[in-house]
Every structure is written in structure tokens, then in C-alpha cells.
Amino acid sequence: MGCSSLNNIENEKIFEILKKADRLTLGILVLRIKGHSSKEISCLTGIPELAVNNRIARLRKKLKKIF
């Protein structure tokens, strides 16, 4: 997910949260949006499935604060 993709996000609060996320977390987010399971993301990224779930949960928690 490049910077130009982030610039297309209209909600400033969402933009700021995603801008602060690390590259791996953004990659996991993109894979999840594309429909991949945590197990598939784990295989694709080489990180444990639990770590994938934790990164998604932390990002979700930050996003829930604004909704």
C-alpha cells in the first residue's frame, strides 16, 4: 500500500492511524481486505498466525476509537 493510496483516504483520522502503522501491518491489512485468512497471511508473510491476529486486533482497536 503506497503513500498515494493513503492520500486517497478522505477521513483524516483514519488516514493518520494508517499513516502511523508500520509497513508489515499495512500489508497484513491489504491481504485481509483481499479476503485472505490469518493462516494464509501467516504463510505469505512468514510471521506466526498469532502475530497476524495481534496486529489486526491492535489496528482494529485504534480504528474503533474514532467510530
Topology:
Elements: H1 3-7, H2 12-20, H3 23-33, H4 38-45, H5 49-64
Can you characterise this structure?
The protein has 67 residues and is mainly α. It is 73% helix and 0% strand. It has helices at residues 3-7, 12-20, 23-33, 38-45, 49-64. Helix 4 crosses helix 5 (49-64). The longest helix has 16 residues, at 49-64. The chain is elongated. It starts with a helix and ends with a helix.
Keyphrases for this structure?
elongated; 5 helices; 67 residues; mainly alpha; single chain
Q: Can you tell me the residue ranges where pLDDT is under 50 for at least 5 consecutive residues? A: none
Gross geometry? elongated
Total number of beta strands: 0
- Percent of residues in beta strands: under 5%
What's the mean pLDDT score? 88
Structural class, judged by helices and strands? mainly alpha
Return Rg in Å. Answer: 12 Å
The main β sheet shows up as:
none
CA(first)-CA(last) distance: 23 Å
